[in-house]
Input
Amino acid sequence: MSALAGRTAAVVGSGPAVAAITAALAAAGATVRAVNAGGDFGTPDIVVHADLPPLRPRALMATDGAAWDEVAEAPIRRALLTAQAAHRSATRLIFVVPTVSMEGAADFAGQAGALEAVRLLAKSAARRWAANGLTVNVVSPAMADLQPDLAASDAGRTKPALAGGLETLAQAVVWLAGPGAAGITGATIPTDGGAVLVP
Output
């Protein structure tokens, strides 16, 4: 029997990472739908938030209020709304947060700050909601896995020891969604191939 047979899942966001995660969850037996941020995703068992800020470099001195809201503040609000909606029915909430949140990168200050805030939101929710049977975890790919043209930028400066990629990201999500991870909450699982070796 497939690990996620009979389970329902919503994957929030768009792009190649969402496609890879959706396909992997479906292959594991879940009934999956991808939804845009802010959309009504019903009452699934599994919620994956892969709605990321724009992964475009912007110098701090060239960042005005509107740009800061786009890359730093709006993503946190969207993550909060996903978490609040997931709390209604889910037993698994998984955030996709690139490892740039933990190491920073030149010209990605807004994104790194927003993503680290989402990672801390996940840890706080994990502690608060554990008694409700909801686990909350983070999967952290390299930014270059999500947007390959960033490999030559400061965001891709740390070379991985192993290949990571979207398949590794998607399989980590499947594992966290499954029964084998029932006792894991508040964790960050790096899938960047060892590029950022942090606890």
About this structure: The first helix runs from residue 16 to 27. Residues 135 and 143 are 25 Å apart (CA to CA).
